[in-house]
Amino acid sequence: MRRRILEAAKQEFASHGLAGARVDRIAAKAGANKRMLYYHVGKKDDLYLAVLEGAYEKIRAEERGLDLEHLDPPKAIERLIDFTWNYFLRNPEFLALLHTENLARARHLKRSTKVKSLHSPFVELIATVVRRGVASGDFQVAVDPVQLYISIAALSFFYLSNSATLSVIFGRDLLARTAKDERLDHMVRLVLAALTGKSFAAVGLDQPSIPKLPTHHAV
């Protein structure tokens, strides 16, 4: 029952935000009643925080399965970028929840006793990959692992969360299959070029041609 409630709540908060979400709808989707919901999780704010914590637990758990520690450093970073991009594509509700909580200035996340402990091992894993890359000569600089992950996540997050407006502005369907493939290739090249000191064109396959912008595009 708790799992059903949290899944229903995730969809409700992702679709309507915290303010617009309704406990009655969550209970109905979960096949429960409000009394059961309060018993298993708590009031609306507690339910929202449980959904947030569950969302972070899910992505961190999947990241642990990437086996980054046993890959060559450049391949490990490429796998992390590929995973992050495709995870965001598969889980749009995760992006919606992050957007909602940032609008709230992380007010609910600050109450969490779980989230920080989830992230510390992940940051250390990235730091280990970077150190191995520097030691092997694959990477030219030991970048801050937190900054590196934020950059990787941002390259995916901004593109996807703003794809509707950017598609109109630049006259491209940024969610077309070819556009998504080009975006992933671009992100891998960009990050590996920064870490290895190689040129963008020297990383991966030949640099894709860049379509011309429409002459009337806005800025």
Question: Any overview of this molecule?
Answer:
The protein has 219 residues and is mostly helical. It is built from ten helices and no strands. It has helices spanning 2-20, 23-30, 34-40, 44-64, 73-90, 92-103, 115-136, 145-161, 163-170, 177-196. α5 runs antiparallel to α7 (115-136), α5 (73-90) runs antiparallel to α10 and α7 (115-136) crosses α8 (145-161). The termini are far apart. The model is unreliable at 205-219 (pLDDT under 50).
Order of secondary-structure elements: HHHHHHHHHH
> Helix- and strand-based class?
mainly alpha
Overall pLDDT: 90
Number of helices: 10
The strand count comes to: 0
Q: Unreliable runs, pLDDT <50, ≥5 residues?
A: 205-219
Q: Could you give the distance between the termini?
A: 49 Å
Can you tell me the overall shape? globular
Rg from alpha-carbon coordinates:
20 Å
Approximately how much helix is present in the residues?
55-70%
Main sheet?
A: none
The percentage of residues in β strands lies in under 5%
Question: What's this model, at a glance?
Answer:
With 219 residues, the protein is mainly α. The protein has helices spanning 2-20, 23-30, 34-40, 44-64, 73-90, 92-103, 115-136, 145-161, 163-170, 177-196. 69% of the residues lie in helices and 0% in strands.
Primary descriptors:
219 residues, mainly alpha, 69% helix, disordered C terminus
What's the helix and strand layout?
Elements: H1 2-20, H2 23-30, H3 34-40, H4 44-64, H5 73-90, H6 92-103, H7 115-136, H8 145-161, H9 163-170, H10 177-196
